[in-house]
Amino acid sequence: GQNIDQPTEMTATEGAIVQINCTYQTSGFNGLFWYQQHAGEAPTFLSYNVLDGLEEKGRFSSFLSRSKGYSYLLLKELQMKDSASYLCAVRDSGSNDYKLSFGAGTTVTVRA
Amino acid sequence: EAQVTQNPRYLITVTGKKLTVTCSQNMNHEYMSWYRQDPGLGLRQIYYSMNVEVTDKGDVPEGYKVSRKEKRNFPLILESPSPNQTSLYFCASSSLAGWVQNGAKNIQYFGAGTRLSVL
Predict the structure, then answer these.
(1) Do B41 and A104 touch (CB under 8 A)?
(2) Average pLDDT value for residue range B71-99
(3) What is the Cα–Cα distance from B103 to A23, expressed in whole angstroms?
(4) List of chain B residues whose C-beta atoms are within 8 Å of the C-beta of residue A89
(5) What is the pLDDT of residues B23-50, one digit of tens each?
(6) Nearest in space to A7 (alpha carbons), one of A21, A17, A19
(7) Confidence at residue A100, expressed as pLDDT on a 0 to 100 scale
(8) Residue A28 Cα distances to A3, A62, A88, A90, A103, angstroms
(9) How large is the average pLDDT for residues B90-116?
């Protein structure tokens, strides 16, 4: 099974940087995803890591260390529209199980 | 436009009255899945399907049924809903192209959600 932990809430100021950490313990690993979810809406894909290192996409970056079971999502130059929940999800590597397990999500509030 | 469509978006029902939430995708995806989302618990998988006529239980399947008679549709059936099934439900789909090889991205795309209240 999977155990995925991320902080419940974070608050930051517009223009600042926020780092959301995610730790996981899994029986197998075949990729880590970050999704953004605005209140009452569908999760939307942000980033994907399967190898160690940093993936950068505009204001958002995601890092993975498989040996430490650790990832973070970095949000730079925060904007008010970045206020949302951020979900860390890990995909298992079972041969017949294409399973994505989600953490409970981190609610980020951006203040003016 | 590529999308996952769920209906209805909102539903209030009473205990024991059978209901079906429909899900349809137009991306020719092999994989489809149902999740429920509850405060503090995140998204939990109910059932998933790897292809037509292939379905399997997720983490919280009790009280739910699914079917996959066509590739594009994956309805969620609550035969006898109970108040503990009050939740926000999401359907998702993804391609399985290359999934047996490590590293294939295969992003899951989500529907807009169905907010269900069982009284």
Answers:
(1) yes
(2) 93
(3) 19
(4) 43
(5) 999 999 999 999 999 988 889 999 999 9
(6) A21
(7) 86
(8) 12, 20, 16, 9, 16
(9) 84
Q: At A80, phi and psi to the nearest 5?
A: -60, -35
Residues of A whose CB is below 8 A from B106: 98
Nearest to B42 among A41, A50, A87 (CB): A87
Say whether B103 and A31 touch across the interface (CB within 8 A).
yes
Q: In which residue are the tokens 């209030």 written?
A: B12
Question: CB distance B102–A42 less than 8 Å?
Answer: no
**pLDDT of res. A99:** 79
- Sort residue B42 into left (φ over 0), alpha (ψ -120 to 50) or beta: left
Q: How far apart are CA B53 and CA A17, in angstroms?
A: 47
The model's pLDDT over A43-71, given as tens digits with 9 standing for 90+, comes to 999 999 999 999 999 999 999 999 999 99
